[in-house]
Hints:
The protein has three domains: 88 residues, Translation factors (Elongation Factor Tu (Ef-tu), domain 3, Beta Barrel); 111 residues, Nucleotide-binding domain of ferredoxin-NADP reductase (FNR) module (Rossmann fold, 3-Layer(aba) Sandwich), CATH 3.40.50.80; 70 residues, no CATH class. The chain has nine helices and 17 strands.
Amino acid sequence: xxxxxxxxxxxxxxxxxxxxxxxxxxxxxxxxxxxxxxxxxxxxxxxxxxxxxxxxxxxxxxxxxxxxxxxxxxxxxxxxxxxxxxxxxxxxxxxxxxxxxxxxxxxxxxxxxxxxxxxxxxxxxxxxxxxxxxxxxxxxxxxxxxxxxxxxxxxxxxxxxxxxxxxxxxxxxxxxxxxxxxxxxxxxxxxxxxxxxxxxxxxxxxxxxxxxxxxxxxxxxxxxxxxxxxxxxxxxxxxxxxxxxxxxxxxxxxxxxxxxxxxxxxxxxxxxxxxxxxxx
Length: 280
Ligand SMILES: Cc1cc2nc3c(=O)[nH]c(=O)nc-3n(C[C@H](O)[C@H](O)[C@H](O)COP(=O)(O)OP(=O)(O)OC[C@H]3O[C@@H](n4cnc5c(N)ncnc54)[C@H](O)[C@@H]3O)c2cc1C
Ligand code: FES
């Protein structure tokens, strides 16, 4: 059983949990993920390793409450245990040899981008972190990014905090100012990663995106997480989750991500009602 050592809300729908999982912590690297179940009847939830502490034997996850399973997870408290916590899965982020990078995070994708920025920065790479949120209330990890970047550009769509505008505007401004990036890493909603990739293609800058399609087994067996990359079928769980953004078929990934939306909203409503009844 995997004990929750710490739990805190980073904004009203984003939760950070530190989990005791020494075997996972020992081998975890930036870019990898775990698949957990809150209880033994629960659905498998893939979540990125947001941080790890090898001495303590802990792994930190940061998740947005979007549906039934993350709703169940958020109701667990410090001292409770998760039923499963398998990982680390997927390939680690390649960071060696990069001198100057931009790490771009959108919304809760910033939680996935944070360990990547931290890894680059710790090896002496110049890191421009560009993180974007819809508004001030949704901002997460500002202090953490300040410590893990050379420059932080915090953007809000409505201008209620930081700079006004989208992450692509900040990135283009930096490129136009003469920054010579070895690589751009973009992690966030599919349309955001698509538009970052279109922008960097114009400037011929290598771009890595982290793809989060629906996953089931996480071992390359079920085929659920398939994507088309450079005309070939790839499985995000074993070939990724990071891929060359200039080769990913984003339109197909967007269509596939919407396949179960009706079922998912019904299930979330059912779960919320269940918790409401428990409180009454
Ligand atoms: C490799 C990987 C890393 C991820 N890392 C993070 C992270 O660090 N933080 C975070 O908030 N979210 C992350 N996600 C997304 C997270 O797994 C889903 O938000 C979660 O599974 C939703 O489950 P639900 O039942 O609450 O919502 P549902 O109502 O079932 O679904 C809501 C949305 O979540 C996505 N989703 C649902 N089930 C899965 C599944 N089995 N696999 C992948 N996506 C699913 C779909 O896009 C869906 O539309 C990651 C996904 C993958 C594949
Ligand atoms: S989750 Fe089954 S093949 Fe990737």
